[in-house]
C-alpha cells in the first residue's frame, strides 16, 4: 500500500438495500460502472461480513464507521474505511449515504497526519461538496462544487445560496438548508433542472447534513451533490421501452398500432413530435414488396403525435399520402434499413427541408433542432418510416436515443406486420364467407325472408356461421342455419362445403331428419380426410364439427317440418303476437356419428314469424344463454313492422356491444297459397285414368287462362300418370299448382325412385320421363309418407 494514492467513494443505498447512486470515485476504486450496479443489492459488494458493531448500528439506524472488506470487479479484495449516515425519505423509510477512502498511509491508520489528509480528501473528492455556517453562508467548497456553481470559491464565500444564484430552484435549496440547520435532521433531495455551466436538463441527488459539535449543537451543515443525469436518462429510456412493450400492439389493427407507437414516444418524454408513414401498399392491407430502386415511394401518414395540441408542426394531415422523391433523405433511409440522427445544419436534412417550403417553415417556427428517421421493418420487409423530432426538449438525440428508437420501432414493426397479416387473412376469409352466402333471399310465394349476418368483431378470426333459403318442389321452401366449429379461413371453407352439401341433399328432397343424417356422415368424412397438415400437427381428430337447423315449409298444407343437430331452437311468433321457442328434439352436433336425429312438424298460421339464429346472438360475455333468450323473446314481442325493421330491433335489444362470435339472424314470415291456385284430383288405378287426368288438367288450365301451356301440360300429365299406373300403385293423386311457375305433381304409393333411360329403336316404352325432361324447365321426385311424388315445373307464359 506504500505510495498508493487514496481512492474515495460515495454510495447511496435505498431502504431495501439496493444501490441508488454510485460515484465516479467508487467506479475507479472497485471497477464497476454505474449501470452495472444501480438497483442491485449492496451486499453483493461485500468480500466479508460486516463487523458486529457495524451491523448493530445499521439495525438501529445509527451512524456508523469502520473498515469494510469489499470485492473489486476483477475479484480482488479491497479494505475501505467507510462511514454510514442514515437518511430519512418522504415515505418514512431509511436510506444510507456511505462514504469512505482506502487507508493509503500508516499515518492515516494511527491518526498521525489525519487532519491534512482529511482536508485533502474534502478538496479532492470527485463529488461536489460545500460547507455552510449556522446562517447558511458558504464557508468552503471543493473544486467540483465550484465548477458546478460556475463561480470560484472565493467569490461565493460568506454568501447564501440565494445570494449566489437568485433564481429557482436555488430558493428551494436555500429553504432546505435552513430547515436542516433548524431541525438538525439530514435531508435528501432530488432535482431535475438546468444547472449553471451545463446545457440541457440534469438530474441531481443532494444530501444536506447537519454538522454538530460534541454537545450535539448544530454548528453548520454540509451539502454533497451527486450528478445522476446519466442514470436519470437511463431510467427514462427504460421506462419508455417498458411502456412500449406494454402498450404497442394491444390490437390487431394497423392504424391503432401506429398510433400507440407515436403516443408512447411522446407521452414518455422521448420525443416532442412523432410521425408514422406507412407504405401505401401496407396501409391498404396489401403485401409489401421490395422497394424498387430509383423510384419514388408513396406513403400514407398513418399516425402522428405532438406535445402541442393538434400537431401544428405537421405539414401532412393524418390519412393523407405523400411521396418520397428519388435521392431524398427519407428514401435513402428507407433503402439503408438503418436509422439515422440529423440536425438542421446537416446538408442532407437541409436539402430535404428546402424541397418543401412548408416543412422548412415548420422547422423554423417550432425551432426543431434534432431529427431521427428510423425505418419500420419486420421479417426483412420494409413497412414504412418513423420520424422522431425534438423542439421543446433541449438535448439533441444521442446515439443511445437512436438505439432506443430502433428498439421501439422494431417492436412496433412486428405488431404492425402481425396486424397487416391478420387484416389480410380476415379480409380473405370474410370475402370467402360472403361469397358462399346468399346475396339476397329469393322471391317466393311461400314466405318473405330477411336476414342479418354480423361477422365477429376485430381481434378474432371470423367464424363459420352460414344460412340459406332453398326453393323446393311444390312451392315449398327450406330454411337452413348452421355454425361450423372454429374460426378463420378453414372454418369458412368447411362452411362452404357443408352449405353446398345441404343444397345438394335438398334437391334430392330428403326429409329434415334424413338430411341431417347424411350431413353428419359428410362431416365425419371431412374430419378423417383433413389430416394434421390441414388442421395442424397439435390438433387431434374430431376438430371438424358443426350445428345445424333444417326446416321445410309447405304453403299449401301450412305444415313446417324441422330437425336440428345441436343448434338453438327457433322462435315462433304467432299472428296475434305471442312468442314461444319451439320444443324440438335437440339432436347431437354434426360429426359425432351413430346418434339419431328426430323431426317435428308444426302447423303454422298465415303470417306466422319464424326466427332462426346462431348461438352468437344469445351468448355474450355480459349475460348467459337464458338471459340472451329472454332478450330475444322481448325483442320479438314488440309490435310488428317490416322484417328488416324487426331484424334491426332484435339486434339492438339483444346485443350490448361488438359480437365476439359470428351472428346469423333469419326471419321468415309465412304465407299460404290461395286455394284457387291449387287443384288436386284422386285417380283410380286404371288405364282410363290417363285420359281423364289429361282432360281435367286441360280444363283447369283454361280456367286459369293458361291455354298456351295446355299441350305441354297434357303431355306431362299423361306421361306421369302412365308411369304411376305402370310402376307405382294406389293411391294415385294429381295436383296442379299455379305459383311463379306451373307445377304438375303425380303421387303414387310406390317408394321406387324413377330414373331416365334411353329406349332402343324397337322398344315400346322408356321414353316417358325423357319427354317430361324435354318439356319441363326442371323435374324430379321426392319421397312421401305413403310413397313418392314426381313433379315437373314449366315457366308461365310471358304475358302472365
Task: Outline the structure in words.
This protein is α+β, with helices and mostly antiparallel strands and 800 residues long. Helix content is 34%, strand content 28%. A six-stranded antiparallel sheet has the order 13-12-11-16-15-14. It has a five-stranded antiparallel sheet with strand order 2-1-5-4-3. A hairpin with a 5-residue loop joins strand 3 and strand 4 (77-88). The radius of gyration is 44 Å and the shape is elongated. 35% of the residues are buried.
SSE layout and pairings?
Elements: E1 8-13, E2 19-22, H1 24-30, H2 34-37, H3 52-60, E3 64-71, E4 77-88, E5 94-101, H4 106-110, H5 114-124, E6 129-133, E7 138-141, H6 143-149, H7 153-156, H8 161-164, H9 170-183, E8 187-193, E9 202-212, E10 218-227, H10 229-247, H11 254-267, E11 273-279, H12 280-283, E12 297-306, E13 321-324, H13 329-336, E14 340-342, H14 347-354, H15 357-365, E15 370-378, E16 381-390, H16 399-436, E17 447-454, E18 463-471, E19 477-487, H17 489-507, H18 512-529, H19 532-535, E20 546-554, E21 559-565, E22 571-573, E23 579-581, E24 599-603, E25 609-613, H20 625-637, H21 643-654, E26 663-670, E27 678-683, H22 688-704, H23 710-727, E28 732-738, E29 741-748, H24 768-775, E30 778-783, E31 788-795
Antiparallel strand pairs: 1-2, 1-5, 3-4, 4-5, 6-7, 6-10, 8-9, 9-10, 11-12, 11-16, 12-13, 14-15, 15-16, 17-26, 18-19, 19-20, 20-21, 21-24, 22-23, 22-25, 25-26, 27-28, 28-29, 29-31, 30-31
Helix pairs in contact: 10-11, 10-16, 11-16, 16-17, 17-18, 20-21, 22-23, 23-24
